[in-house]
Design goal:
heterodimer; A: alpha/beta; Rossmann fold; 6-stranded mixed β-sheet; 4-stranded antiparallel β-sheet; 10 helices; 10 strands; about 25% strand; B: mainly alpha; MetI-like fold; 12 helices; about 75% helix; binds adenosine-5'-triphosphate; binds magnesium ion
Chain lengths: ~250, ~280
């Protein structure tokens, strides 16, 4: 069974119909890459999975999302538990208004971890996983706001991993990073898929090719095509997909 | 010179003039009080309580009014802060519909504009009804009413500036609304809270009308919440009202003390808030 199953998902902001009848399956321990032009609803899709969208006014959501066979939008679901299970890296990194250390420790703390020793270990382990440890190990007490945008992006990854989610949803996780650091994050994500199911949104088609096991192509709010990487990249069924991945004008 | 340059120059002149006008009048106020009050300002002024009844004497000091004002303003500011935080949080979209919240904001703005004598009269009426005399408690209650709308609206304004994404980040990690509000949002707006506190404290400690009937006046330092209490603004008011130049001079000295208290508090809170503004996410 798939880790997350999306069935007939529709989202609109006011009168603007943004996601149109999207159905997608996200398998266990694989990387699913979502590609598509800007403004087509990729961020909206990710935010609808962990129910972040419903916090906004005027958003209408219909259709269903299942995680491990249980409906995510069931009113009985504990949203905080659900969100803990689905880590989300937002497109623009937002550190919390605290120190670097506290940023990573925030999640474990609210979920009941009080022991200093264990928190220290969690912080070190996850900062290392995000490739930030060497740069910040001597200034864990400084405000996270003083880090560069690229460092903040990696801090957000560490913070996300620190609550040990089951699924990681990454919205352009390397948009502010140099090619080398982006490469490192990419490698991290590839390693992480043994433990997590990962969804990555990216505009970079070369990265999509390297990273993906599965690919979904969204165009103007519709999921045009999805499947194994090989099928999508080498043998797209839809004309629009073919044009997008070959870099021709897709309009 | 093109029209655009003229425009630029005109605006620059306007800005500089306005700034000098404001700074000038500010320094004029401080200067007059300094010149007129410095002569009467002595150690006994701040170490002794007043002698000769309701500040009218030429002997003793205004220690009772200094302590009284601090008790009143600190008490009212602490009470307002405790009440304001939950109310301001409650006005945010997580907890209240936008239309209801805007109604409440309008009401609070009206309350902000209500003259302080009205709070004084209202407090006095309630105290008469309850059979209370003018007291520290009554004064604190009246000042709290005066400070509440200021504090709530000031905190509310900074709360509305908190980026939605910041709250979303916290929710993404599985935080509840309460955790998000008190562990993330509160830290983000800490400098704003400090400003709100200074604003409210300044209004509270300087107000005479609301405590005229509710706190009363006395020559003694209060020992319980039910004792009447002296205050600096009323000390200035009474001393200024006497026909004796020596006592009038003491009024300026009292005003100077009030000014110094507000100045010390403002500067120290600014220093305090600077430590935290480094953490604020922009
Ligand atoms: N909060 C919002 N209110 C109203 N409309 C929104 C909101 N967020 C997104 N939209 C609209 O929904 C559409 C999809 O936005 P979304 O952010 O999902 O695009 P995206 O695929 O992530 O784009 P990008 O690649 O540029 O990040 C856009 O047309 C956008 O204008
Ligand atoms: Mg996006």
């Amino acid at each position: 069974m798939c880790h997350i199953t999306i069935k007939g998902l529709n989202v609109s902001y006011g009168n603007q119909h943004v996601l149109k009848n999207v159905s997608l399956e996200i398998p266990h321990n694989k990387i699913t890459v979502i590609i598509g032009p800007s403004g087509c609803g990729k961020t909206t899709l990710l935010k609808s999975l962990n129910r972040l969208l419903e916090l906004q006014d005027g958003v209408k959501i219909s259709g269903s999302v299942y995680m491990d066979g249980e409906s995510v939008y069931d009113p009985k679901v504990d949203v905080t538990e659900l969100r803990k299970k689905m880590g989300l890296l937002s497109q623009r990194p937002y550190p919390l208004p605290m120190s670097v250390y506290d940023n990573v420790a925030y999640g474990p703390r609210i979920h009941g971890q009080r022991k200093k020793q264990i928190l220290n270990e969690i912080v070190e382990k996850n900062l290392k996983a995000a490739g930030l440890w060497e740069e910040v190990k001597d200034r864990l007490k400084t405000p996270a706001a003083s880090l560069s945008i690229g460092q903040q992006q990696r801090l957000c990854l560490a913070r996300c991993l620190a609550v040990s989610p089951e699924v990681i949803l990454c919205d352009e996780p390397t948009s502010a990073l140099d090619p080398f650091s982006a490469q490192k994050i990419e490698e991290t994500l590839s390693q992480l898929k043994t433990e997590y199911s990962i969804v990555v949104v990216t505009h970079n088609l070369r990265r999509a090719r390297r990273l993906a096991d599965y690919v979904g192509f969204i165009f103007l709010g519709e999921l045009i095509e999805h499947g194994e990487k090989k099928d999508i990249f080498e043998n797209p069924k839809d004309e629009r997909t073919r044009r997008y991945i070959s870099g021709e004008s897709y309009l | 010179m093109t029209l655009r340059h003229v425009e630029e120059q005109c605006f620059k002149v306007l800005m500089v003039c306005a700034t000098f006008l404001i700074l000038g009048s500010l320094f004029a106020v401080i200067g007059v009080i300094l010149v007129k009050g410095a002569g009467a300002l002595s150690l006994s002024m701040i170490t002794q309580t007043s002698k000769g009844g309701y500040y009218l004497g030429k002997e003793g000091g205004v220690l009772n009014a200094i302590v009284g004002s601090l008790y009143l303003a600190l008490g009212a500011t602490a009470a307002s802060l405790l009440l304001s935080l939950p109310i301001a949080f409650c006005l945010q979209r997580e907890y209240m519909k936008k239309r209801t919240a805007n109604m409440v904001r309008l009401l609070l703005d009206v309350l902000w504009g209500v003259p302080s004598i009205i709070y004084g009269v209202f407090g006095f009426t309630v105290m008469l009804f309850l059979g209370l005399r003018a007291s520290l408690l009554g004064g604190i209650a009246a000042l709290t009413l005066l400070e509440l709308p200021i504090m709530i609206r000031a905190i509310d304004e900074v709360l509305q500036m908190v980026p939605r994404e910041l709250k979303e980040t916290s929710y993404t990690l599985g935080a509840t609304r309460y955790e998000t509000m008190f562990k993330v949002v509160t830290r983000q707006i800490l400098p704003g809270i400090v400003s709100a506190v200074i604003l409210a404290f300044g209004r509270g400690i300087g107000d005479a009308a609301s405590i005229l009937f509710t706190a009363g006046y006395t020559d003694h330092i209060p020992y319980s919440l039910l004792d009447p209490v002296a205050s600096l603004p009323l000390a200035v008011f009474f001393q200024m009202g006497t026909p004796f130049p020596e006592v009038q001079e003491r009024a300026y000295a009292s005003a100077l003390i009030l000014l110094i208290i507000v100045l010390l508090l403002t500067v120290s809170s600014r220093l305090f808030s600077r430590r935290f503004s480094k953490f604020v996410i922009r």
